[in-house]
Amino acid sequence: MDQVEAIDNQQEPQQVEVKQEVKTPEIDFRSTKHRVKVDGEELEIPYDDLLSGYNLNRVSDKRLKEAAKMRKDVESFVSRLSDGDLSLLEEFVPKEKLRGWAEKELTEYVQWEELPEYEKKRIIAEQERDKVKKELELRDKRDSDEKYAIIDQQVALEIDNEISDAIESLRKTSGFEVPVTAELVQDIARLMLSQLQDGDERMTAKSATEKIWDRYRKKFGSYVSSLSASDLKGILTPSQLKALRKEELEEAMSSMSNNIRQFKSDGTEKKKKTEKIDVDSFFKQLDKKFYGR
User: Fold this and answer.
1) Extents of the domains making up the chain
2) Are 45 and 34 a contacting pair, CB within 8 Å?
3) How many Cα atoms sit within 13 Å of 141 on the Cβ side?
4) Pick from 162, 153, 203: nearest CA to 185
């Protein structure tokens, strides 16, 4: 029996358990977008934005907690002072200064209590009067500031309208399309208001605009004087170049016309001189020419 069992054991194959390692694919979270819901709206946000937003929220939460704790400590400090616990001041103010302040307050209190009743009423009335006077002064100053602010706005609007009209008038008289820039308007307004500092009357917008525009032209001339003709062609617009060529052509034609008129005028004068010779003089010239007498 033992031999049979031994043979059967030899015939049974041995089963070997083999474990296979399953490799999970690596995911690059930084290169992918993640779906989140913000205020009921689903958004796809990159990983870096999620990380930075999380860090920012952590910092914000920490700051809010610190601010809340600080506010709570301040409220507790003020509450204890209101209840009369002045020992807290010893952490911030030396005892000598606290003692001096207390002695001063005590002295003033004793002096106040020793005053007659009518004197106390007088002092209280003066304090109330000064308080009301200060409140009235503050109210008048506030009203005055508001009034001057309105006036300044109106003056600024009037000056702005004057400058716009002056620039439009300059466009019409000069024939140039003057550009309305912030620099131009500021320079005109500054020149208009500069004389007020000296106590003089304000310059008109028209005069200030003409002076500023003339200053711009001179400044432009000083800059372009060193430029070549090709540089100027690159700066000037096609319409400006066309206008310059037309002006040069008109000047040339006008000069030519003047020369022609002058030439005709000289010939006419000579012709008129010959026509003014009388008969006797004419025959005398003939005798001299043909007979030599």
Assistant:
1) 29-83, 95-147, 150-224
2) yes
3) 6
4) 162
* Percent of the chain predicted with pLDDT > 90: 1
The number of CA neighbours under 13 Å toward the Cβ of 27 is: 6
pLDDT for residue 86 is more than 60: yes
The residue with tokens 């002295």 is: 107
Place of tokens 């430029």: 227
HSE toward the beta carbon, residue 17, CA cutoff 13 A: 1
Beta bridge partner(s), residue 243: none
Q: What is the pLDDT of residues 99-139, one digit of tens each?
A: 888 888 889 888 888 889 999 899 999 999 999 999 988 98
Reduced to 3 states (helix: H, G, I; strand: E, B; else coil), residue 1 is: coil
Burial 45-84 (b: 16+ CB within 10 A, else e): eeeeeeeeeeeeeeeeeeeeeeeeeeeeeeeeeeeeeeee
Q: How far is CA 8 from the centre of its chain?
A: 101
**Single-letter amino acid, residue 81:** L
Tokens of residue 186, six digits:
């500021």
User: Which amino acid belongs to residue 132?
Assistant: V
CA-wise closest residue to 87 among 104, 102, 70, 107: 102
> DSSP 3-state helix, strand, coil percentages of the chain (rounded to 5)?
75, 5, 20
DSSP track, 32-85: SEEEEEETTEEEEEEHHHHHHHHHHHHHHHHHHHHHHHHHHHHHHHHHHHHTT-
Contact 44, 35 (CB under 8 A): yes
